[in-house]
Amino acid sequence: xxxxxxxxxxxxxxxxxxxxxxxYNALLxxxxxxxxxxxxxxVYALIYFWMSPRNKEEEIFSQLMAIVVPDVxxxxxxxxxxxxxxxxxxxxxxxxxxxxxxxxxxxxxKQILEKKQTPQTTFLVHGKGVSDDGARAFAKRLLDxxxxxxxxxxxxxxxxEARVLIEQIKANDxxxxxxxxxxxxxxxxxxxxxxxxxxxxxxxIEDMISQGASYKQFDDTMLLEYxxxxxxxxxxxAKRLLDMFFSALFMLLLSPIMLIATIAIYIEDQGAIIxxxxxxxxxxxxxxxxxxxxxxxxxxxxxxxxxxGKILKRTGVYALPQLYNVFRGEMSFVGPQPxxxxxxxxxxxxxxxxxxxxxxxxxxxxxxxxxxxRSTPVLDKINMDIMYVENxxxxxxxxxxxxxxxxxxxxxxx
Length: 414
Fold this sequence. Notes:
The protein has helices spanning about 5-25, 35-50, 60-80, 90-115, 130-145, 160-170, 180-195, 205-210, 235-255, 255-270, 305-315, 320-330, 340-350, 365-370, 380-390, 395-414, and strands at about 120-125, 150-155, 175-180, 200, 215-220, 220-225, 275-280, 285-290, 330-335, 360-365. By secondary structure, it is an alpha/beta fold. The chain has a four-stranded parallel β-sheet, with helices on both faces. A two-stranded antiparallel sheet has the order 5-6. Strands 7-8 form a two-stranded antiparallel sheet. Strand 7 and strand 8 form a beta hairpin. Helix 3 packs antiparallel against helix 4 (about 90-115). The protein starts with a helix and ends with a helix.
């Protein structure tokens, strides 16, 4: 266990005990309060460690779940044993303290780690379809976030002289294979493996689709069978039920905010409140997507934001009418971004892979939306959407929703 995990665990468990003893321990009716506290703390610690993150990539999301779930379980337990409604506020305050403290520890430890970490020498090899400028722009994007990991010593095309390529692979610690052609990617992977080099490579559409396949042994031959898991009703039953329940709940809870937005839009220019847009969802079905109008009423084509529209766009409130689309089953909370029929038809003609995005309902947010930006190539976004289609689950949906909310809050603080 790392030092960081020890500090975080100590902070979370200690804060739980501090709040539990004065507000909840008495509800258990134990003869020995000390023994009761120790047993409760041990049970809490077991649940917390069981839900704690197993890898760094999932750390923020998993820490959130590891804190919220045990707190909720223990409060419910206290209420059931004590046969009375327990106080919610103390545990909510403890939960907030646990989350803020964990976030602070993660932030400080990350900064310390990045300062101590020595970046590895890196060779970026790009495919023929990528220009030198495009490869340098990709390298710059990586350095903007991961300069503590990579130190680019050379950027070259896959059609460089073989001797030069092998020399660069030998001379560097890390190799990044960026959009290589299928016929050469295998050769580079083989060379990297033989030299035991750490390497990364961009995935192809085929790589993403193959995630939906499983191995089948036929006599002495192993084959991959693709399973159309998204064609079965069972896959989306739970997702659809949750979409219906939470869309109805949020429409009710957020109705005051939606009413304020409606009044503000009308007061500004007495124009239309709701904007409708024809979009494609699962199986290319066309539906009317609803959002609050954020542009000047007489300037829809130029997309000039109104004063109210800027606020609605920045806070994400403009998208709340889509809850009605979710309730009707035209959209889901999480899925590929809905596009117009014209854009869908155009992209499908240019890239056959684009149609795979239509294997699940369009979403208010999605994997590609939270992991990409304006400079992300369209093909990379399609890859992300297909990855989601092939691997989606309720836990993945929850994680994407949390990341979407964090993205909105980060924008607010900039």
